[in-house]
Amino acid sequence: MKRTLSCGLRISILSLLTAISSAHAASNFNECKTALAEKAVSQGVDAELAKQVFDEISFQPRVIELDRSQPEFVQTFPGYYSKRVTPWRINKGHEMYEKHRQLLQQLNDKYGVPPHYLVAFWGLETNFGTYKGTMPVLDSLTTLACDERRSNYFTQELMVAIALLEREALEPANMVGSWAGAMGHTQFMPSAYSRYAIDGDGDGKINLWDSEEDALSSAANFLSQLGWQPGFRWGREITLPEDFDYRLTGYKQQRSLSQWNKLGITKADGSPLGEGETEGYVVVPAGHKGPAFMAYKNFRVIMRWNNSEFYAIAVGKLADRIAGESGLMASLPELPAYSRDDIIRLQKTLNEKGFDVGKPDGIIGPATRVGIREYQIKNDMIADGFPGLDVMRAMGVTPAADSTS
C-alpha cells in the first residue's frame, strides 16, 4: 500500500530543510563578506570604511526567498491596470505636479520629458515617495552577491552601492529599498544611481531618498539617456475595425500612421488616427475583448525602465490622466485568475498539438502568444494570441480559481 506524508509532516520537513539550508548559507556568508570587502578595497574604497560597512551587514534569508519565489497566479492586464491607475494616484499626481511645477518645466525644457510623465513614473515606482521599500540595501545586495544564481550582477551592483555611499556621504542605515536593491523615490539600482542620478536641489549632493528634486531631475536625465523622443506621446488608446487581422499586432509589425489609418484604425473616440510617417505598433494586452493601444517610440523607452507592456501602458495612461485627459474608453474585461499551473498545462497542450512554445514555464511570453495565435488561426478563432476562456476550454484547461483579477 502506497503511503503518503501528511500535510503537517511535509511542512515540518520542508521547514527543517529550509532551516538547514539557511544555516549553511549564513555560514558561507561570512567568508563571502570578507572576500567582498577585499574586492571593494581593491576598487578604491577606503579600507576602514569597507570594514565598518561589512561588519554591520547581515545575511537576509527573506531576500533569497523572494528571489526564488514566483507568483501563484498570472497577472492579467485588467488586474494590473486597475490597481495602478487609480483615483488616488491621479489626484496625488495633480498635487505633486503643482508642488514641483517650476522644476518640472525646467526639466522639460532641458531634457524634453514632459512633467506629467515624470510624475507618473514617480507615482508608479513609490506612490510619490510614500513607500520606498524597507529592506537594508547593502544587506540585500551582499546576500544576493553571495548567492550563486546571479552573483556577478549583484556583486557589481554592491560595489557601486558602496562607492556611492562614500561619494555621497550616505548613511548605510538610511539606504533602504526593495529586496533586490532598488533605491529612493524613483527606485534606481545602484548602477543607474551612479550613471544617471543628478543634483536637482543644488546642495552639492545626490540623495534619491530625501530629495524629491534630486529624484525628479534624475528621472528626467535617465529617460533622456534611454532615448526619450521630445515632442512625441507614449502612445494612445485606439479602436480597431471589426475585421482587424490580429496577426498585425506586436512590436515586429510596426507601420506608419498613414498605413494604420488605411487599415481602418481610429483613435479611441472614433476620430481619425492621422497621417504621417511616425511609426507605431498595436498592443492588445487583454485580447480582442479589451482595450487596444497604438505604441510609439517612447513606449519602448518606458519599457527600458521596466520591461513590461503593462507597466508602459500604466505609465502612459497615468501621465495622460495627470495631464487632464480622460480614462480608458474601452471597458476592462473580467478575466479568470489563471494560475501558473494553468498556463503550464496550456503550454504543454500547445506543444503536444504541434504549436511549439518552448519549455512550459507558466509565463505568457512572446512564444506562447505566437503559439496561441497559430492555434486560433487553424481553428477559425479570432487570432489575438491571448489565452481567453475559449482557448483554455478548447485545450481542456479549467482555471484553478473561479475569481477574476
Automatic annotation (TrEMBL):
Domain Transglycosylase SLT: start-end pairs: 29-320
GO biological process assignments: peptidoglycan catabolic process
Signal peptide boundaries: 1-25
Keyword Zinc: no
One annotated GO molecular function: peptidoglycan lytic transglycosylase activity
CDD domains named among the record's database cross-references: Slt35-like
Coiled coil location: none
One Pfam family per UniProt: PG_binding_1
Domain Peptidoglycan binding-like: 340-395
Keywords assigned by UniProt, alphabetized: Signal
NCBIfam families per UniProt: MltB_2 (TIGR02283)
Record's protein name: Lytic murein transglycosylase
Organism: Alteromonas pelagimontana
